[in-house]
Amino acid sequence: MIRVLLAEDEHLIRGALASLLALEDDVSVVAEAGTGDEALAMARAHRPDVAVLDLQMPGLDGITVAAQLRDAVPECSSMIVTSHADPGALKRALSAGVRGFVPKTVSAQQLAEIIRTVCAGGRYVDQELAADAIAAGESPLTPREAELLAYAENGAPVGDIAARASLSAGTVRNYLSSAAMKLGAANRHVAARIARERGWL
Fold this sequence. Notes:
With 201 residues, the chain is of the alpha/beta class. Helix content is 54%, strand content 15%. It is built from 10 helices and 6 strands, in the order E-H-E-H-E-H-E-H-E-H-E-H-H-H-H-H. A 6-stranded parallel beta sheet has the order 2-1-3-4-5-6, sandwiched between helices. Helix 2 runs parallel beside helix 3 and helix 4 crosses helix 6. It is elongated. The relative contact order is 0.11.
């Protein structure tokens, strides 16, 4: 019997998934959670074989939960379900050790099959999501440009970024304008958004 943790913040969807998975002979939903923090606590308490994690949840997101589960409950394989994902999310998920990455449009039968695959040590990544990630390509940014764009992402002024990076304000401006130019962005904020969506930050 494959023991499953379901983490999904929308109660109706979580309940429907649990009911549908209960129809499978070899799958048992042993715990449910509505937030990332609950998911971690439930995984520690119930030691499931597979954690099915919503990408976007209150508190910790699914990828952060997956990364922490790798240490906290190493026998548990994680998979992400999402209604919309950018290529960056897929790259982060794979780096966090996620073994499945699927859209919420899959049928309950498909989901059960993917849970079996992941439990057996395999991987499943939705083809369309994988194609989008590949299409995003390699980052044209230097490590320093990426670092400074990440600081700029939340609207930090150049002076604050310069202080954090131990650089002069002029040098920071040069790096940020170079990054914006490479990404065809009007300013550093747009550049940061583009880089994040493509998985380059």
